[in-house]
Amino acid sequence: MSKHTAGAETRGAVREAGSGRSERVSLTAARRGGPAGDTGRFAPVIDLRSDTLTRPTEAMRAAMAGAEVGDDVYGEDPTVTALQEQVAGLFGHEAALFTPTGSMANVLAVASVVQPGEEVLCESSAHIARAELGAHGAISGITMRTWTGERGRVDLAAIEGLHAPDMGPFFVRTAAVSVENTHNFAGGTVVGIDDLRDLRAWADTTGTRVHLDGARLWNAHVATGTPLADYGRIADVLAVCLSKGLGAPVGSLMVGSADAIDQARVRRKRMGGGMRQVGILAAAGAYALEHHVERLADDHAHARLLGEALGLDPADVDTNIVVVDRPDAVSFVTRAAEEGVRIAAVGPRAVRLVTHLDVSRADAERAAVALSRLVAR
After folding, report:
1. What is the DSSP string of 50-114?
2. Taking the model in full, what pTM does it have?
């Protein structure tokens, strides 16, 4: 793990070489080095709908094929056990639990700190509120209330205003606050570590637990140089994904105390998530942690190029996600596809682009040219 636990000097060098803001490549330069042909219609499609689209590399496939395995429901798969111990250690927590999806990891994590009939507070466009199909209420019996933060960030004053202490059998009690880092629907925004520390300090005074949806926390780590353990310290429980920018085909982990993980293991089995020779999948995650963390800086650089093509200030593109307001979101997606660039509508007036392992610099430059042409029409 030396590649992403080395000092800030190493991370800074990687960012400067791979995706530092000082290295900004202008859209004009992208046009000069653009693809052959006028529209790129005959070039391969560039798929920017999500970083979940990545496919395992040949080296990752080899690691999967060679994985030592056992029955994980019996706790006998050495590869997944090693991965869980590794990830727990990275965040300074006692234990971790491998899950097939990020949504399951979040459901298990939130349920470990919020009991049925209690509430969790989160930002209004948070993934747990918007994109997990009501799982926390339907499965765990909890409720939510939300604040709206600029670019999805923590608004401690709003949280304090929403917080409901235990007032007996009259009102729903606030058991936890959930924060998302990076924030997906806010355009991959990094929630700053100082804001998270302030939230942690307030939570300690009120007895409120903190859940961190860290599906793309690796991106925040690479973009800022903040150590993973610093993020771990602000959360009672967190979830991280391996199957997005890191490029593993499957897998997330819930991270927390040994007691929380023991309880989550039972819930995971009850939800149908007990897996057998899961070391084949865990090996992909272990490979990704060793080889694909620092390269996230390239994705961030590519996203800034795309953001510039769509009229954004590249300085406002924190990581690998670009969200742009478009009054014609659906038709814009259709027209982009006709140009060989697949993007997604994430609302009637918003489109999203996500760079990832399978998007090269040349792909990003070609997409930037196509999208800038659409914007200019």
Report:
1. -GGG----HHHHHHHHT-----GGGT--HHHHHHHHHHHHHTT-SEEEEES-HHHHHHHHHHTT-
2. 0.87
